[in-house]
Amino acid sequence: MRAVEAFTLSLAVAFNFFEPAKAELKNCTCSAVYSFGDSLTDNGNGIATFPDQFIDSETNPNGFNFPHHAADRYCDGRLLVDYVAFGMGRKPNYAILRSIAADFTYGANFAVAGATARNNTEWVQETGFSSPFSLNVQVSWLERYKVRLQFYYAQVELNSTTRGVVYQSLPASDSLNTSLYFVYAGFQDYFFPMYYQTMTPTEALDIVDAVVDSIVAAIQRIYAFGARSIMIVNLPPMGCLPALLTLYADEDSEKYDTYGCLDSPNKVSNSHNTLLESRVADLRHNYTNATFYYADYYSVYRDVLKSPTLYGM
Ligand SMILES: *[C@@H]1O[C@H](CO)[C@@H](O)[C@H](O)[C@H]1NC(C)=O
Ligand SMILES: *[C@@H]1O[C@H](CO)[C@@H](O)[C@H](O)[C@H]1NC(C)=O
Ligand SMILES: *[C@@H]1O[C@H](CO)[C@@H](O)[C@H](O)[C@H]1NC(C)=O
Ligand SMILES: *[C@@H]1O[C@H](CO)[C@@H](O)[C@H](O)[C@H]1NC(C)=O
Ligand SMILES: *[C@@H]1O[C@H](CO)[C@@H](O)[C@H](O)[C@H]1NC(C)=O
Ligand SMILES: *[C@@H]1O[C@H](CO)[C@@H](O)[C@H](O)[C@H]1NC(C)=O
């Protein structure tokens, strides 16, 4: 089993911990999965928009272990969002911009590689792996998607033979408020400036408020749209990522934690996650008729580092 596959599998197992009181994970009743974010969740929107820039998502090792085909994902196997979909006994959702053979029966994926949580209004293509389709744009796509769906449903209701003409594997008409909305954003905002060294980890702490505000604003719009089950995923310890370990390598062992990860990028993850978690608590308090799941990816990642053999590594 390849390392990435094992890691992602363990995440699926770890979803048990979101409801600590129950030993058995109850069967999920969500109709479909709608997802938002960046390359950690994108399954085709990046390559659909900028094929040259994001061609890597179709070449080895990406897609290597994905069942049946190269998968337009920045991963050698399944993404976290795929495990959520497979865990519910469903097919993965499709990239919203996929123009050929898309199947939206079980939802749609609005995440785009290179997308920030913060609005990206001054986008220029030259700035490496970045995309103009930040979280606010993705939520606008969701709103537009609903308009089109309602148009199709109305047409089919008027004349059922039009179904054959307009039908393209769409979700059930009453499923939008029984679906799971999966928001895993913010990674691009911090990681890429640190990777391109246009921002130090200490400077990255200064944008945490703005990043979390953007995520919360997106969630509020998704809620207003009609979502009643929203899963918000926190960020992994970025000080453990090989790219940052290499770029910010330091002779001073004091700069590392017990797992050999760098403290300063980890502080960014911690600061982001602490604020995000408290905002999710506010959301629960403000919107009592929706369920907000705080998915603790950070702790799962640490758990794998702590007990790698437990996860087949
Ligand atoms: C989940 O669904 C499967 C298949 O329908 C069923 O066999 C299983 O008992 C269900 N588990 C729970 C906890 O409801
Ligand atoms: C981001 O863009 C949305 C519109 O898509 C706008 O409503 C919002 O105010 C903007 N946020 C900021 C912080 O500028
Ligand atoms: C229903 O739609 C089909 C296909 O567009 C068309 O041929 C048919 O005339 C329509 N029927 C009615 C009653 O409008
Ligand atoms: C979901 O929306 C449908 C209309 O599309 C409505 O009939 C239903 O009551 C709503 N369900 C919930 C749980 O809000
Ligand atoms: C919750 O409601 C309060 C009071 O209306 C508001 O100030 C705050 O921004 C809201 N927070 C979230 C996360 O919705
Ligand atoms: C959910 O709560 C909001 C605000 O508390 C309210 O405006 C809305 O009508 C409620 N929706 C349902 C379906 O109960």
Automatic annotation (TrEMBL):
Keywords: Signal. Gene3D superfamilies: SGNH hydrolase. It holds the Pfam family Lipase_GDSL. InterPro entries: GDSL, SGNH_hydro_sf. Transmembrane segments: none annotated. Residues 1-23 form the signal peptide. It comes from the Eukaryota. One of its GO terms (molecular function) is hydrolase activity, acting on ester bonds. PANTHER family: GDSL-LIKE LIPASE, ZINC FINGER FYVE DOMAIN CONTAINING PROTEIN. Belongs to the 'GDSL' lipolytic enzyme family. This is Uncharacterized protein. It comes from Physcomitrium patens. The gene is LOC112274453.
